[in-house]
Amino acid sequence: MDVLQVLFSLWTGNRCTAGLPEAIEKLTAEEQQEIRAYCENNERQAFDVGFKTAVQLWNQLDNTGEIMK
């Protein structure tokens, strides 16, 4: 299983999600589902980018420490 998928699942399972904004509540169930899917996809992409960036930064800092030794 993809490590990022596991981490993303843990993150989404442990956060509090607020109810739908009033404007979205007025949409049909299908429209609400489309909006949720779109937002979840964007959120997943942002999580992946953020996590990968953090790993790259960690690796750069780790390499810098080896150079300074």
Textual characterization of the structure:
The chain is mostly helical. The chain contains three helices and no strands. The mean pLDDT is 80.
Instruction: Specify the helix fraction band.
Output: over 70%
Number of strands: 0
Number of helices: 3
Distance between the termini: 36 Å
Order of helices and strands: HHH
Mean pLDDT: 80
Radius of gyration: 18 Å
Helix vs. strand class: mainly alpha
Low-confidence stretches: none
Query: What proportion strand?
Result: under 5%
Keywords:
69 residues; mainly alpha; 3 helices; elongated
Q: Summary?
A:
This protein is mainly alpha-helical.
SSE topology:
Blueprint: H1 3-13, H2 22-25, H3 29-68
